[in-house]
Write a structure and sequence with these properties.
With 235 residues, the chain is mainly alpha-helical. It has a single domain, classed as Methane Monooxygenase Hydroxylase, Chain G, domain 1 (Up-down Bundle), CATH 1.20.58. It contains nine helices and no strands. The relative contact order is 0.14.
């Protein structure tokens, strides 16, 4: 009977972990598609991202329901409990990543209507590549139980902050040089901020995953470098 109980718990936990991987794959797809829709003014692709957010929300609810039921039925301890609670937290961050990707997608049409030159989107495209790499990598590191990789990925959030500051300065310069760029650049600024926030959620996932894997918390003073306020003052 004991073996059956343990096997049932493992199966339930495995299902939750599969849902986390599914959410991670969908989050990566949504972020990538939202940026492509933004840069190409592809309204059909943007609408697909908006629709995918409904699926993302449903998967988070399923994880919450299964995790709560698992805790109530099995009363897991130690590492097993960390895995269940960690899954709930990671699902919440993945759902927020989906929301932010949806927000980017919703601005695709508005940016496309502006008079901004194609050249001003290069910075945000490079930033998106950094963010997408983190979104696609963090759950893979968790599944592989790669504590060192999770620690490194968490530290790499500083690179996203640096890129965000550079994009902010670049778009601000375009706006001051030609008022016709203001509308498109404003939308792009919001999108860049959403990408920076996606990076923050990836960092949260890395921290929770590290705790699940090792049982230890990473230092609270994680890197955070947002110099956009200073950039405005310097202009």
């Amino acid at each position: 009977m004991g073996e059956h109980t343990v096997t049932s718990f493992d199966e339930d936990l495995d299902h939750i972990q599969r849902l986390i991987r599914d959410m991670s794959d969908l989050a990566g797809s949504m972020v990538g598609s939202s940026i492509r829709a933004l840069l190409a003014s592809d309204n059909a692709l943007a609408q697909r991202v908006v629709s995918d957010d409904v699926i993302m929300d449903a998967r988070q609810r399923e994880i919450d329901d299964r995790a709560i039921t698992l805790i109530a039925k099995r009363q897991p301890m130690a590492q097993d409990l960390r895995a269940v609670v960690g899954a709930i937290r990671m699902a919440g961050d993945l759902e927020r990543i989906g929301d932010l990707a949806k927000n980017i997608a919703k601005r695709a049409g508005a940016v496309g209507q502006g008079a901004a030159p194609r050249g001003l989107s290069h910075g945000i495209e490079a930033m998106a590549e950094l963010v997408l790499g983190q979104v696609q990598g963090v759950v893979g590191l968790y599944v592989a139980r790669d504590a060192d990789g999770l620690r490194t990925l968490r530290m790499d959030d500083e690179k996203i902050d640096v890129k965000y500051t550079a994009v902010f300065r670049e778009l601000l310069t375009y706006m001051m040089e030609d008022p016709r760029n203001i509308t498109a650049c404003t939308h792009l600024l919001f999108c860049a901020k959403n990408l920076e926030r996606i990076g923050d959620h990836v960092t949260n996932i890395a921290e929770n995953a590290y705790y699940v894997v090792t049982g230890e918390q990473l230092p609270a003073n994680r890197p955070k470098l947002d110099e956009t306020a200073l950039a405005v003052l310097a202009e």
